[in-house]
């Protein structure tokens, strides 16, 4: 989805810059044009799947559906923490950070196999 988002911006916004009557000549002008395009795209252009603008669909998200991100320190750790290898036990478990976790529901996991684990 991220790649598709980038593709939309490249085709629908960046592709139009050269055809503007007065193309932006500074970063501030590009940012201003970008904000204007973003408000139009999310507020007016209908999504092919929902038939509604993105803002209209986003407004239907309820408080119960929102997930609060962890604090900034946890996010930094997630960004820089490398995956660690763990060996699957005969009980189909692994140990990580002093705790034991079942991996029996992971498709095709095998006893003795080494798997990569990271904080999520």
UniProtKB/TrEMBL annotation:
It comes from the Bacteria. This is Transposase. It comes from Microbulbifer okhotskensis.
